[in-house]
Each structure stands twice: as C-alpha cells, then as structure tokens.
Amino acid sequence: MLDLSTIGVALRWWLVGSSRTGEFIVYTGISFVDMLVNAVKAFNAVCVLLYEGSTLWLKDIYDYFCVVQETIRTASDYSVHMLSLLVAAAARVVWAPFSLIAAVLTSIRELLLLLGSSCLFLLSLPPLFLFYLADSVLHAFKVLRSFTLHVGERLTEHAGDIETLEVLTGLVVGCGLMIIAVNGIRLLVYWYFMFKTRMYRRFLTWAGTTWRRVKRGMTIARRRQGQDNYKLQETELCIVCFGKARSVCLLPCRHLCLCTNCTQLLSHPLRCPLCRQLADDLIHVYL
Question: What GO molecular-function term can you cite, just one (predicted)?
Fold first, then answer.
C-alpha cells in the first residue's frame, strides 16, 4: 500500500495540474474571445475603410464628371457665343453696305419729298396769298359796310332826339378838353425839364468862368528873386510826370495836380487822378 506522503504528493500534483489546465483553458478561451473581438474590429475597420474609400472614390468620380460636364458646357457656350459673334460681325460687315445704300436712298427720298413739298408750297403761295388777301379785303369791306349801316341806322333813329345830340356834343367837348389838358401837361413838363437842364448847364458854365480862385490849397506864390535854376518841392510837381510844376486846376473837384503837357496827353473824357471825378472844365493857374 502506498503511504500517505505519496498520496499527498500525487494529490497536490493533480490539483496543480488541474488548476494549470483550468487556467490554460480559461486563458485560451479569453485569448480566443479577444482574437475574435479583434478580428471583428479589424473586419469592421476594413469595412469602414472600404466604405469610406469607395465613397470618396465615387465622390471623386462624380466631381470629375461634373468638372468634365461643366468644362464641356463652358466650351460649348463659349464656342456658341464666339460663333454667334462671328456670325453677327460677318452679317454686320455684309449688311453694312446694304444699310448704307438703304440710308442713302432714304435720304434721297426724303430730300426729293422735301424739294417737292417746297416747290409745291412756293407754287401755291402766290395764289394762297392773293386768295387770303382778297378774302381779308372783302371781310374788311363787309365789316366797314356793316358798321356804316349800323351807324347810319342809329343816327337815323336818334337824329331827332335832343338828348342824344347833347350827349354827343358833351362827349366831343369832353374829349377835346381832355386832349387839351393832356397836351398842356406834357408841354409844361417838357418846358420844366428844359428849364431845369439849361439852368443847370448855365450854372455850371457860370461857376466855371466866375470862380475867384480864393481857396487854392495847392497854389503857392513863389518869387524867383533872380534864381533861374530853383528846385520845386514834391508837393508842387505834377503827379503824373513829376517833372513840371502844377499849372492846371480841374473843375468841379478843384484839384491842382497836373501840368499843361500831361493834361493834353491824357485821354478824354478827362478824370481827376486824385478823386477820379469827371472833369467838366480846366483852369490854368500860373504860379
């Protein structure tokens, strides 16, 4: 019979082998499950990759076809547009001489119509003028005849009426008095303005010829005392040439500022160089 130690050892080895076998089986199952899970994940990833790749590929193919279609459409539109432009240009070039000829013919037609209308108007103008002139003269005679008959009838009706004669007489007398009054007023106004203008001119002439030269601020009495080459002051020289003494007084401003030569050289009408007033008369002042 086996002893207890051998049985214990055998039992321990059996337990150890059983546990290792169980672990192997468990780990093998777990590994198999993990492998299956990884295989499923890999298959899923491959399917997703295939789906996305096919989708992108199909999208690229669709975009390519769209680009090709758009290119073909653009090329066809551009070719049609260019062809239409070429046809239009060719038609315009071909049609230009015909349109020019048509325009020339239309202008010639309008010119002929205008000349014909002008000639017809000129030919019909004298008869129309004579016709309207005769009609106007006849109408004037008719109006004059009607007016004369009307006046004659009214005079015949009221010839024996004393009030009518008095009214006519008063009307004639009143019109005559009004005409006389208007002419008298016009004559008085005319004589008034004539008197005013002549008196103003005569007053200016009288003032220019009878001025006493009492207030001459610019006139200085100098005595030469035997000196031939004396020098004039700046205020005593002509303000135009500054070479000769002032010897001309301008009216009505009474400025003594010019010499005789400068007065003759200045343009007419003469204006005073100081105040720019129009000079009506000159007075020579001898210093």
Answer: ubiquitin-protein transferase activity
The whole-number average pLDDT for the span 102-123 is: 86
CA 35 – CA 133 distance, rounded (Å): 131
Under CATH, which number does the domain 233-287 receive?
Answer: 3.30.40.10
pTM reported for the whole predicted model: 0.24
Residue-range domain boundaries for the chain:
17-123, 162-210, 233-287
Query: What is the model's pLDDT at position 287?
Result: 58
